[in-house]
Amino acid sequence: MPWPEFLLILGVCASCTLLARILPVALFADRSLPPRVLAALRYIPVAAFTALVVNDLFDPARLAQGWVANVLPLVALVPVAVVSLKARSLWLSIVVGCGSYALFSWLASLLCGALQ
Amino acid sequence: MTLRVIRAALPVVIGYVALGMPCGILGAQAGMSLLQILLLSIALYSGSGQYMIASLYMGGYAPLALSMSVVLVNARQLLYSSALLVRFEGVGRGRATLAASNITDETFGVNMAEYEKGGWGAGACFGTNCLAQATWTAANVAGAAIGALVPIEAGLAAFAMTSVFTCLLLMQGRQPGNLAAVCGTAAALVACKLAGLDRIAVFLAACVGIACGFVAGRRDGDNEQGSDNVRGDDTDALA
Question: Residues 7 to 46 of A: which have CB under 8 A from any B CB?
Fold first, then answer.
């Protein structure tokens, strides 16, 4: 990539992302915030994790790729949900998630092969 | 504490090795040199951002239009920094700003989980972030240099992170405010994506969800209890 183009992309993206990361803390870290604001801030984790999960699972662009590509992540996430609720371990969620994704991908390929 | 930081960062570190290498490969395919990939990983340090830069550049986007798309996607980082405000109470402005400077989706998640366990501070938060960032940078450079030799299933690597976010989500409390936040966020995200607002969907949907949670929580009295909105039982189970 030519350096002038690269430096423009790097400069804009990196500076704006850094601002997004530090601005609220840099502006308000030493101030006591109103209780209503603090109450709203406490909903950020649950909203952010929901958005990230649903964003990974729901992709309109993937709908054209057939049912396997769309249903597979949902099915593979069921064992992850069970283990997460029981054990509450990030480690275990990764292991079970990768295992179930690989297993269901393999089963789906077997099923598609058998149907053809 | 060092050991705890390493333990906290490890799930993210493993995920970043698996996600960073394909990102480096894609960067190299987009015509970036090793030095450019290194600089981008250090200065931008954003998985979704770096994937977008490579793919949009290959798609013929102008640098400024491409950069604006990345900025929109990364607007969600405002939320993480805002949420950390609650945790950084009493920490000096300088230390707090430094600890927030390299937060990501994944490190935000593990840091919030560690804060729930107690005994976690801005220094440990920054240490976790730095470990993850160093891994991300090394994985990107390695991907660009030797990535073609290592078979990595990108779909599987991405699903590992989906699993982590699912686990973090299920660790949140079940009070009405949280449930309203989940429903509001999910509905808004699907609506945003159907409307073609993919790039800002996570940020917009989370904002809608926070508003839903706040309104439902106020009706239920959750907001006045100073609750941390996380399940109170068995808080030491995260490992």
Answer: 8-10, 12-14, 16-18, 20-26, 28-30, 33, 35-36, 38-46
Which residues 73-92 of B are in CB contact (within 8 Å) with A?
74-86, 88, 91-92
- Chain B residues in contact with A91 (beta carbon < 8 A): 10-11, 239
Contact A62, A69 (CB under 8 A): yes
How crowded is residue B50: how many other Cβ atoms within 10 Å of its Cβ?
A: 26
Report the C-alpha gap between A31 and A35 in whole angstroms. 12
Helix, strand and coil content of chain A, in percent to the nearest 5, comes to 85, 0, 15
Residue ending a domain, among B123, B152, B171, is: B171
Q: What is the mean pLDDT of residues B167-179?
A: 93
Residues of B in contact with A20 (CB under 8 A): 74-78, 81
How much is the mean pLDDT over chain B? 89
Mean pLDDT of chain A: 91
Q: Please judge whether B229 and A102 are an interchain contact, meaning their C-beta atoms are less than 8 angstroms apart.
A: no
The pLDDT tens digits of the residues spanning B86-109 come to: 999 889 999 999 999 999 999 999
Q: A8: domain range?
A: 1-31
Its pTM stands at 0.85
Q: Of B122, B139, B171, which residue is a domain's last? A: B171
* Domains contained in chain A, number: 2
| Interface TM-score (ipTM) > 0.95 | no
